[in-house]
Design brief:
heterodimer; A: 95 residues; five-stranded antiparallel sheet; 5 strands; B: 84 residues; mainly beta; globular; mRNA processing (chain B); nucleus (chain B)
Chain lengths: 95, 84
Amino acid sequence: MPKGQESILDLASSVDKKVTVHFNGGRVCTGTLKGYDELVNLVLSDTVEDMGEGEERKLGLIVARGTQVQRVVDEEGREEIENPFDGDDDEDEDE
Amino acid sequence: MSAARLLPLELVDKCIGSSIWVLMKDTNTELTGTLKGFDDFVNMVLEDVTEIRIRDGERKEVKLDSVLLNGNNVAILVPGGAPE
């Protein structure tokens, strides 16, 4: 009987959800998480690579190498907000 | 309901014998070719390889017969190969 993953990262809850994966070296991809293993190798479907400056390309079904994965972000929990630091009158650095 | 989830290395294994597109950690380097095999570290043997180097918007392609690719810097694998 497999013991299960000794991981602090719970990818099971993100399966079939949209995630954004950041890689060492700067690549960023967004896709639907279809599979993973304990080494954080991932399978994403309908993947789009964000190449910066609004440029994107479709990759489709991919395997992301866990050794190069920097972070996995669940898109559903993500929300862009107003810059909380805008409108500060006194722009003091650390005093 | 136990979901038989898709294991990444199983997907790579299914790709043996067909085209695969490999995106390296360096955003300017990609390879595409026929996957002949791979090991535990995802070092790969590829044949009929096209190496694509992108620099300053310019795309340079080099054709190679047979390649042993060190898996150390492989970031993304796309079964099916690069788009034409």
